Amino acid sequence: MSTQSSSASVLPNFDVEALRRDFPILAREINGKPLVFLDSAASAQKPRVVLESLRKTYEEEYANVHRGVYWLSATATKNYENVRKKLKVFFNAKDEREFVFTKGTTEGINLVAQSWGRAFLKAGDEVLITALEHHSNIVPWQMLRDQIGIKLVVAPINAQGELIWDEFQKLLSPRTKLVSVAQVSNALGTILPIDRIIKAGHAVGAKVLIDAAQGAPHMRADLQALDCDFYAFSGHKLYGPTGTGALWGKKALLDAMPPWQGGGDMIKSVTFEKTDYADVPAKFEAGTPNIADVIAMGAALDWLSALPWDAIEAHEADVLAYGTGLLRAIPGLRLIGDAKEKASVISFVLEGVHPHDIGTILDQEGVSVRAGNHCAEPVMEFFGVPGTARASIGMYSTRADMDALAAAIRKVQEIFA
Amino acid sequence: MSDLRDLYQEVILDHSKKPRNFGPLDHANHEAKGHNPLCGDRVTVFLDLAADGTVKDVHFQGSGCAISMASASLMTELVKGKTEAEARALFGKFHALVTGEEQPAGDVDGDDMDRLEPLTGVREFPMRVKCATLPWHTFIAALDEKRAPVVTE
Fold first, then answer.
1. What are the b/e assignments for A222-237, b being 16+ CB within 10 Å?
2. Considering only CA atoms, which of A175, A130, A134, A127 is closest in space to residue A152?
3. How many helices (H) and strands (E) does chain A have?
4. Is A89 helix (H, G, I), strand (E, B) or coil?
5. Residue B2's pLDDT is what?
6. Which residues of B touch A361 (CB under 8 A)?
7. A386 and B63: CB-CB below 8 Å?
8. How many CB atoms within 10 Å of residue B102?
9. How far is B151 from chain A (nearest CA, A)?
10. A228 is a catalytic site residue
11. Which of A20, A360, A364, A387 is the most buried (most CB within 10 A)?
12. CA distance A52 to chain B (A)
């Protein structure tokens, strides 16, 4: 176990304490103890700029978008559409119109399934996923299977929680029309080799969708270099507000896809006989969108862009490795998922203690973790556990958080001794 | 820590580690499954219900947190030998006690309530109330099972 001081980052050029001051909630206490927030994989806390943006929109610049000729509506529209430009830069995409705003990754995947899937897949076509997927990258394909008869194929994982590459390759064939995989497993933290997956998928003529819900907050994506076909992420895990996110897709694909919801804002003209749809991305954004939250997601992107990402990734890796070492040394604790390449997540079980009891006792110590199946029941079944306790870190997490986690776990063991 | 010790009293820990009446019941004539998808608690309750409505025997099986397992274990000890009406009345009181709702009318054995007292710590932990009540809801579902065909309106 390291005896190094754990109060601050061990890395030069990165002042985690300064970063933490940007997050007002991190200063609060829970049950009389300083908050140790270790559930960033479920949703990240928000920096002050996001809160300020929400306030500013509603207090000074709010009206519906794409409608009014008046100043407020024009300003809200400009602020809203500017976020697409920010996304283009942040993810190095070719064209800002390739970003469709969604309420999160789940909606992005459902959009691909219901629009692209229903239009371009037929009975017998295969969608290949992995055994690590979140329910949101399983259920939409099962729904599509029941609607049009596609086949859902699942690539297996090994005991460490890593994709078995040989098996994955064997499952690829000309019948594979879509490969849809998580960049990072939400339940285990495993990083999937998406570069290789994208190349291998394309080699058999399949399209590739990356579920970046857990990937986007921890590693910058260069969409042009990555060359996937779809990339879905959630704004609220990327330090922005809930109800935000985007689906990125290659322009030619989005152009060819039919709309999936009808309504206002997604049309060029409507008569009772016929409707001409708007171009992308408006075609996929029926109804009044989540204006203020999207604008605040833009504020989060600005804030994130100004940060030293290399240093943040190194900091997160350090905290994760430090915490993993601490927990590994606790007798009776079993890490669930021990992949070589991991991000953010430490999933574990304690001998003789149900994860839910761990969660309650940790909370009394001020430590917020998730306990349960993490919307990944097949993963839990694979490891033969009903659920796990999951500590997941964000860029504001520290070695001290890991110390507090380990101390709280020992408390659990005292109570259940 | 006082709150935690209220929740995880010795009785709770003991029953969760060594659940009574655990496992299937060969001569069961009623059975129901309960599931809490939030935490993954699963419990199956097996009943041997006599023709006169007496709970001749009751077992449970499942996996879950200490609270749900202890609650199930205590429940089996308490409802065994009771009539259906007595068992229902006891659940009514217990449910009110852990949810903080108004006590339903009717008398139950004071000793039984004393034995359920260790579970009342969940009142301070709203997320855990369902853990304590899941086995009871499942027990009631098992009781209702036989009547399902006749109560259809």
1. ebeebebbbbbbbbbb
2. A127
3. 15, 17
4. helix
5. 53
6. 4, 8
7. yes
8. 7
9. 34
10. no
11. A387
12. 32
Report the residue of chain B nearest A366, measured CA to CA: B1
Question: Is the Cβ–Cβ distance between A324 and A391 less than 8 Å?
Answer: no
Token pair listed for A271: 């008569």
| Cis preceding linkage at A281, omega within 30 | yes
Please report residues of A whose CB lies closer than 8 A to that of B125.
360
> Which residue matches tokens 């927990």?
A327
CA–CA dist A248, A92 (Å, integer):
11
**CB–CB of B67/B19 below 8 Å?**
no
Question: For residue range A276-312, what is the model confidence (pLDDT) as tens digits?
Answer: 888 999 999 999 999 999 999 999 999 999 999 999 9
Given the residues A375, A379, A405, A408, the one annotated as active site: A375
CA distance A389 to B106: 42
Nearest to B19 by CA among B58, B76, B57: B76
Instruction: Read off the tokens for A386.
Output: 């009903």
Region for B121 from its dihedrals, namely left if φ exceeds 0, alpha if ψ lies in -120 to 50, beta otherwise? alpha
Half-sphere exposure of A416 toward its Cβ, with a 13 Å CA cutoff?
Answer: 23
Q: Which has the higher per-residue pLDDT, B38 or A69? A: A69
